Amino acid sequence: MNPRLGALQPYPFEKLRALHAGVVLPADRRPINLSIGEPKHPTPAFIEDAVRDNLKGLSGYPLTRGTDALRSAIANWLMRRYDLPRIDPATQVLPVLGSREALFAFAQTVLDPDANARVLCPNPFYQIYEGSALLAGARPTFINADASRDFAADWDSVSDEVWAETQLIYVCSPGNPAGNVMTLDEWRMLFDRADRHGFVIAADECYSEIYFDEAHPPLGALEAAHRLGRTDFHNLICFSSLSKRSNVPGMRSGFVAGDANLIKQFLLYRTYHGSAMSDVVAAASVAAWNDEAHVIDNRRMYAEKFDAVLPILQPALDVTRPQAAFYLWPRTPGSDTDFARALLEQEAVTVLPGSFLARDASADGRGGNPGTGRIRIALVAPLDECVEAAHRIARFAKAYAAR
Predict the structure, then answer these.
(1) Which long-range CB contacts under 8 A does 67-74 form with residues at least 24 apart?
(2) Residue 174: is the preceding peptide bond cis (ω within 30°)?
(3) CA-to-CA dists, residue 243 to 98, 208, 334, angstroms
(4) Secondary structure (3-state) at 157
């Protein structure tokens, strides 16, 4: 067996199942699960129609580089969304089977484990970042989120020695779980470090289309690079997906885009990896990337939930509206794990303890676990369920704090 498998930690939801062991739910409460970021809004009918209308695509092997139509649709969407003058669909775009598998596989492509490789990750983080680093023979290093800076990663804590050993950085903007959006100054700093030390930046943007101000969408990685004169996107790859944008997590459809040299090497890796998107999914994906009306409606539904839930929760918990994404990241009165277990036991509401999403050390070995004392609430359930859950959480939190 690959000995590196032993370095993998249990996934957050495996920890959650262990935390819930022995819990008996109250008989007078219907269970409401707000722990997992799985979109629950209906899949748009035109995407379902596109699947049905293209079933003949099942009769042939798909190409790893994807269809010309899909790469063009993605390139055009990137240019519209981020006001970019040119994205070459032939060299700067590659369809993938959702951002998750691509985020993992990309590390296997760019890391040299014989060079004492280090991978930097925000903390809290998406556990795929850590797993991809470990299985590629690298050392994951966690950069704590700074609550005083709207949960931006504390890049100033990274020593020159750590920067010099870094081969890959994962960033997530809008962030999971805090919904923070990286600023142009943050990007400028990372690009400067990448030029100085030669590492690659992997920008996870799967929440980029869940935001609350139609006039001010979140800044993207390619957009930031272009504004700063990096028109070739050197050492930068962004990862995106239709799962949350278009409510099609089961389609497993996303893309990577950016540095053409990195795309070329990633395509080589994927040719051996066997990660080609079905032409059926590709055709439905073209339809999704070409339409914005359903995405605007999707944002409206999430905004309604935040508008309804926050006034209920804020008198009971320290919680604020995020810049983007569909999570709340409130403080808990006391232990996040004790709070989450007791909430399920008394109110039949499932949330995710924040400590399960983070690790105990920042880049300098200090800082503790930045998820401790917080919970992640995913507002993915229907509006009425989110409102009902908010009332239960608020009632429970007030009683919990008064113990």
Answers:
(1) 67/95, 67/279, 67/282, 67/283, 67/286, 69/282, 69/283, 69/286, 70/95, 70/277, 70/282, 70/283, 70/285, 70/286, 70/289, 71/95, 73/285, 73/286, 73/289, 73/290, 74/255, 74/257, 74/289
(2) yes
(3) 8, 11, 34
(4) helix
**Hey, what domains does the chain have and what are their CATH numbers?**
3-42+294-401 (3.90.1150.10), 45-291 (3.40.640.10)
Of 136, 261, 278, the residue nearest 198 (C-alpha): 261
pLDDT digits (tens, 9 = 90+) for 127-173: 999 999 999 999 999 999 988 889 999 999 999 999 999 999 999 99
Q: Which amino acid is at 390?
A: A
Cβ neighbours, 10 Å, residue 68: 12
Q: Which residue has the tokens 């101000």?
A: 213
Provide the 3-class DSSP secondary structure of residue 204.
strand
Instruction: Give the distance between the most distant pair of CA atoms in the chain.
Output: 64
Residues 358, 221: Cα–Cα separation, whole Å = 23
d(CA 204, CA 202): 6
- Which residue is it, tokens 């139609």? 214
| Residue labelled with tokens 């389609």 | 251
Q: At what angle do helices 45-53 and 279-289 cross, to 10 degrees?
A: 150
Other CB atoms closer than 10 Å to residue 157's CB: what's the count?
A: 15
Radius of gyration, alpha carbons of the chain: 21
The pLDDT of residue 365 is 52
**Segment 225-231 long-range contacts (CB within 8 Å, at least 24 positions apart):** 225/187, 225/191, 226/82, 226/84, 226/85, 227/184, 228/184, 228/187, 228/188, 228/191, 230/191
Q: DSSP letter for 76, please.
A: H
Please name the amino acid found at residue 250: G
pTM equals: 0.96
Instruction: Report how far residue 392's alpha carbon sits from residue 403's, in angstroms, rounded to the nearest whole number.
Output: 17
What is the 3-state composition of the chain as percent helix, strand, coil, each rounded to the nearest 5?
45, 15, 40
Answer whether residue 366 shows pLDDT above 80: no
